[in-house]
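**Fold tokens**
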Amino acid sequence: MYVEREASVGEPTSQERRDAEQNDKRILGNVVQCDGARATISAYANDADGAVTGLWTVGKMISINLGSTRTVGLVYAIGKSDRAWSNEGQNAIEVSIELIGEVRDGAEPGAKPVFDRGITTYPHIGAVAHRIRTRDLQAVYDLAGRHSITIGTLAQDETIAANIAIDDTLARHFAIVGTTGVGKSTAVSLLLRKSIAARPDLRILILDPHNEFAASLPEYCVRVDSKTLDLPFWMFKLEEFAEVLFRGRETEPEEIDALRDLIPAAKNLYRNPNSGSYIRRGSDALTADTPVPYRIADLLKQIDERMGMLESKTDRPTLKSLKTRIESAAADPRYRFMFNSRLIEDTIHETIGNIFRVPHHGRPVTCFEMAGMPSEVVNSVCSVLARLAFDLALWSEGKLQLLFLCEEAHRYMPADPRLGFAPTRHALSRIAKEGRKYGCYLGVVTQRPGELDPTILSQCSTFFAMRLANEQDQAIIRSAIADSSASTLAFLSSMGQREAIAFGEGVATTMRLKFEKLPSDLLPGTAKREEATSKPGDDVDLVAIVERLRNVPKSTQQAMAFAEVVDSGRQAGDPDYRKPPATRAPSDDDFDMRYGLKPATFGLRPQND
């Protein structure tokens, strides 16, 4: 028996020894059952002396020797058929493995082994199984020369680096899922740092609902929050503007139709102050969605004129309600990033350049911090940013490479179509479906993949699945992984901190890895937690908390435009708006200053003097 077994163990390359006490055979078991995807190995749990070896454990990779090839399998279950343990002699066990692929030795002597996901020759009954060699394990996860980055180590062998193909991971979108507290944000921060180092041309926009990523990327990041955001209302499409006006409630079709007619008239008044309400028709006609400046004062003026018309008698309640909504939104301090400008001017170049870092000046990451913003503001702004990200990548003809990262993605793309904001869902779906063709990539981070729009999730080609306890969430991930690696997901509910199962286009094969450890000062949210930690004797500042709750600045804060003295005789767009009337200076220009600055030429034909 010994001679026959020794003869069957022929391999073209020598087997390295795991330790000094290991015998040369390295035989741990034999195949006793096999089908198209799985196999069962018969082995012993202890040696001839009765000592438990512990060589068979769940999660380890093994190799089945077939002569010219070696079939690679993953152990997903072990057990004794009789469910009994004997202290006398050896205990026979059954090891269930999932077949992953096969390794072939290189054609030339000394060449590296080559791994193939497919299996050309299946193990036969009695085939010898042993622990996988390090060289074979490296071949399993080799990326075949693709541009790669190292993000950690393999869970089963920490001496082998865990690499991902960064170009494929970004270009075909990726998702990081896991329950709260398992290290998703830390993994995202690590992945972004590695991506920036590997792709210096990459711009990144992070939707940060918890204000935690800016502290983890201090040398790369620019923070944008509700106080520093400058996104004029005229850059919003009609649907997005209506979301702000109606505060997330159901819109009134009559009021939307009125806005669709009146906004182009207000834009035309800004471009041609003396043209009245006449709207030019033709190729350069303005629509409610055209990103051209206009003034709220002109929009309200158009509503007043419409209400004064005799034929609009039946529409007066609708127009009056619409006017009230607009005035209320313009006066709301939560919307100051939209209506805070003293003068209406064409600032689209500065706005887009600041948000999307063009040029980036060494800081290619923008953290859009949304904590404290009302939901209707978040919905509209996210829709604008996602739409602009795709359009910029499209019209830059691939010169602008942009990653749009959504933290807590189930907020913007819920599975239930009745929830969320439809324009945001459509804008992100457009990036997911078509963005990689133009250099606009999507990153999805969520703790509830079961509540995420399946259309968005299906477009992500690389997954990093961390610990998931919810059965529905686990089922979503199982539906995305290949059948040949389904048993790997059995570890989803028991993985440790910083551990993840990576699968998809960005890795050679399904890989269980452990992310690198970041320095404590670069962990997301560290600075915020340190500030929030109370020291002995510190009291809670209730006054400051209430001021933040009200979101209304003090009257002494003259630097804020909405807190300055306002003359009721002036209107938004006047050069001295929000200043005392005594400081008004006469204008000697040849155009009416009440209509703001001279129009810029963004998307418009030059005006003849």
About this structure: The CA atoms of residues 115 and 543 lie 64 Å apart.
